[in-house]
Amino acid sequence: MELIGTIITYIIMAYCVVGGVSYIIDDRSELGQFFNDGLYAMANLFIPICGLIASVPFLTVFIPKYIGPIFNLMGADPVLAAAFIMAPDCGSFALAAEIGQTPDLFPLIIATGFMCASTISFNVPIGLSMLEKEDHKYLALWAP
Q: How much is the pLDDT for 144?
């Protein structure tokens, strides 16, 4: 299975090189334009994800001190606050391991993070950055 993943990675890398060379030779070519569009799409993905990952040390202090008491009043583990705004693969699982009060809640934190945080911190900002301004209303309404 690892071999298949490695082969797919090399195929993707080869196509990136072909697209880059095409863009260098003629930036108005169709392949060069697709390469450039891919770079812009990756930039829209890169910035929010890196921002979330970089905020984990700050949230390790902020959540227990300011958000934690509110969640404690409701009888919830304060680390759920991180799961609402950050997906587990972007750092909420590491945050849960750091400040979580009960390790038994880790499956709940992961489920909450993948369902709620993916929408709040990923789909909406990236969707807005990739859509034209006149299409933002459709994303907000979740309608065609």
A: 54
